[in-house]
């Protein structure tokens, strides 16, 4: 029996051979290079090849690969810097392979005495990575076509991971790190509580049901998103992640709903295979596991494992497979490799790849079976997923008439999907090169396509291309091309792949619709839900003063005044919620911009246009400039007529009031004079006649006062707006206080003035002096005997007009009893020897003569406040 160390060494040699990992060592003291046979196998060298210093590293490809190795090897030897690099080699048979090589060094007394490392064949891994990259590109194209993306939500960290397309749908920079709260902030306020409740239900019930909600973009645009997903739990059935797919179903039908787990499967496929080694002592029935296998089988490290324990973990359906292969090993078959499943205690099923070697004793009896176990569960799942994705892509091709293609630029070889052959009506399976495709292009479009391909090679980007093809039977089709360019490390385009869609019918319908728009008498524009113009007609060019090519791509808001934007946004929102809503919400006239400078009045009408990509809006606009001019003239004439009517009514009211005053206030004095005259004629006594004559003088004085007051009122109403000048209010108060100086001193009155808000007014000076004199005089005359008089005079601006206020703490007036006659002629409300009932009458006449009005607010024994609208708009 071999010593245990020798057995382990044999096992490691076999494992290295299976894993294609070679070992090398360079002894600088002996100047010798040695390696194991695995390196000969990898480099396709003869089994008896003996490496030396001169030929040991010659198989690295000349150029950057060899230079990189020589630099790394030099730094290892001179500085002791270890390396671990991936390079390309050229084998003895001329084949190119990818290898991973590492290096370590031993130093003694500062001198490198030996270096050693591993040499691993990673060609298969590189090829898998390339296939996965191609698959990812195709899936990204599928996302773009269906306008959907994938997401995952880590419920432990609250972090959300999005694909690039979702960033595009939500219009968020891809550099921004997303979390649950940021996503929630994008959701429409009306849908937010629903989404929160569904999220809570998902975490509680561990089930996800497809649902939809609205989002609001930065520009205010609303989109509708359909969400599907899956709940992922740990071994304790606790939710650790929710992942799935989101599709923008605002503008297109849902064509993809099972990409919800793409991120998960793609991440799984990137992980390297986990391989561990094992030994089964067939005599003691004990099995030895390396550390990684304990994790694979869900066991505690160091657990003692017997053969029956191992078999118990094998899936019941695969136990016979294990039994058959063990029997083969005992019957002399020494090498076995096959997959089987295990069933863990928590119900998890894994698929393992088993490699086994049987070791016999001197008599040929099997005493030990050892080998490797690789957990290929993820690889199997990835393979299954890739098959499903390919089936799905084929389904999408047939549904949307979209084909997929791949152009190997270096070899000029093009791969077509089945739908590509169908679109071009080309013999399926025929070899395709670039000229095959180019010869189908319509002669008038060949130069355009050539220019686009040149731009793709220069900018490493391939733009969306629309062009025509001519089939062998002469029929013409319109196709739309979408592609991405793939470059090598030097930045050279080595491959272009993408999709091609037959849009012939759509193009024909577009042309018919365009002709219909051109025949319309009004300006017609078609916009998407964001308000971006898609199509216009000639009449639009005339209305907006811009060419059609400049209009397309603009927002409707850019063609209207800024003041209308909020109303337009609110109406657009309402319109898209209910296409029957036709009433515009503009309180003012609607205008558009001509040449971006001049406003043009327009009549607006909207109607929905439903397409496969979502609803559009047809906007019809008519220039109503001439109509507005006629309307303006009509409104002006009506306004002038109304002003004349108001003036006439006011004059009639004044005449009626004057007639009433004169008939009432003059009838009594004249009647008194007539009676006195009769008495005077009948009186014979001279003393009696003298007394009657004194009464004549009193009545005549009262009649003279009444006539003078009426004359002043008439003058005020006829000359009010004449002789207007700028007046300082403080100066007017000063002059009034000088006139009433004796009364102010005797009454111990306090006059408080605040003209800070309006120091000056433009008014008739005589009237303003009279107003101040009457109102201040009345405040002193009708002050309270129980408290000192305080009169507050202020000026202010309300709603752009000038106001004066006079407020005192005097006797007050009972407005319930006298309110209707406060400003009447000869109306008095207090027993005061100097009360004549003339001051307020004149004040009201003067204020109204200037186009203003006066109001009163009073309470008995509290005071009175007069407020005057001066009919003056201060200049700013």
How would you concisely characterize the structure shown here?
By secondary structure, the chain is of the alpha+beta class. The radius of gyration is 51 Å and the shape is elongated.
Order of neighbouring strands in the sheet with most strands: 8-7-6-11-10-9
First-residue to last-residue Cα separation? 113 Å
Mean pLDDT across the residues is 80
What is the number of strand segments? 34
Described by strand count, sense and barrel closure, the largest sheet is: 6 strands, antiparallel
Query: What are the low-pLDDT stretches, counting only 5+ consecutive residues below 50?
Result: 253-271
Radius of gyration: 51 Å
Structural class: alpha+beta
Beta-strand residue fraction: 25-35%
> Which range best describes the helical content: under 10%, 10-25%, 25-40%, 40-55%, 55-70% or over 70%?
40-55%
Shape by Cα distribution: elongated
Number of helices: 26
What can you tell me about this protein's structure?
With 876 residues, the protein is of the alpha+beta class. The chain is 41% helix and 29% strand. It has 26 helices and 34 strands. Helix 21 runs parallel beside helix 26 and helix 22 packs across helix 24 (765-781). The protein is elongated and about 185 Å long. The chain starts with a helix and ends in a 7-residue tail after the last strand. The relative contact order is 0.04. The model is unreliable at 253-271 (pLDDT under 50).
